[in-house]
Fold:
Amino acid sequence: MWHNWQLHFRRIPLFGPLVDCDARDHAATLGQTLIVLSLATAPLWLGGLVIFGTSSQASFTFGTALMRTMEHGELFMYGTALLAPMFWVALVDPPGTRVFPSRIIHMVLIAVIELIASAFFGLTVAGNNLRQPFIFHLSVAIFAASLTLLYLGTLYHSNRLNAAEAFKQDEQGFSQAYEEHRQ
Structure:
């Protein structure tokens, strides 16, 4: 039953390859993603901290200060920046690794996100009056989708690198056993 479920789930675009990932892959990916996220968004949260620390209003909260750093669609830019490395990761298969799983759907979703985010960020920078809070909510959704694609892309890449190492170890073990058998 479990095997049948895996076979059916594996066919789901983008999420199917999760079947092949183990806890070690998720742990490594979570660590990498948190580091990338904290460093990539430092201007937002550090800017919020500075705004909060310099405010003279007693009722002003850190959440309000943080919102000021991203209320005009700034997350569009951060979402596109998070996805830039995924183009390379999804398109290039290092020697000895499997093909990147769900490559086509991953690339299509990245392209759609990049186009939407670039268009709206460009309109914002050009000084167009865009509908609020729609722009903020759209930028949050784009950023969340970017973060999801970053996590999945990193996870699948980590998994295929681990698989390549496992294949190498199996091959070395077989070679050693064969040499011992010959002697």
